[in-house]
Design goal:
mainly alpha
């Protein structure tokens, strides 16, 4: 007997006061539930949170991070609140690169100064050396002041580069007149 005090339906009489319609006997096939999915998702630990934050800083969306880490988009959003993607928008000001600015301007005036590629390269090397010697406060001010950048380019970097370029041109003239000059490093015949 069951807990309710009645016999199971297949054992009760089919006629009379306690009659029930018997259930048909069917063979139940084992059901294949497919891949086992956990009903409770594992907890997110600090290592996973750090990975989420790093992926978010690299520019991944919440959905992409969730797929990579193995949790929902909502969980990623919750743990990376306040961490924005590092995107450059059209209206956003980029970090100023003084050497890139120097390079663009040197190659813009290269034809006017009649600089060869080797001479422009020497100019850029001198500009790089001059930038490395700048005071941090000066570096901070240069992105905002165009005149100061031009002064830097033509009053600091150019004089040192001009000496090197003059030397290169003298050597080239001597080589056209006298033939190739032999370096002191190479042994003579």
């Amino acid at each position: 007997m069951s807990a309710s005090g009645r016999k199971p339906s297949n054992r009760r009489p089919q006629s009379g006061p306690g009659a029930v319609a018997p259930r048909t006997r069917t063979l139940r096939l084992p059901q294949n539930p497919g891949p086992v999915t956990p009903t409770r998702v594992r907890r997110v630990h600090q290592k996973t949170i750090n990975q989420m934050i790093e992926l978010r800083r690299q520019g991944f969306s919440h959905h992409e991070i969730g797929k990579r880490v193995g949790c929902s988009e909502r969980t990623v959003r919750r743990h990376t609140k306040g961490v924005s993607r590092r995107l450059v928008h059209a209206g956003e000001q980029k970090a100023f690169d003084l050497l890139r600015w120097c390079c663009v301007n040197v190659f813009a005036i290269r034809d006017r100064l009649e600089l060869s590629i080797r001479e422009a390269d020497a100019f850029m090397k001198q500009a790089r050396a001059a930038v490395s010697t700048l005071d941090p406060l000066t570096r901070q001010r240069l992105p905002d002041d165009r005149q100061m950048r031009l002064d830097f380019l033509f009053k600091v970097a150019w004089p040192a580069a001009a000496r090197t370029i003059r030397t290169m041109r003298v050597v080239e003239r001597l080589e056209t007149i006298c033939g190739p000059l032999q370096d002191s490093d190479e042994p003579g015949d």
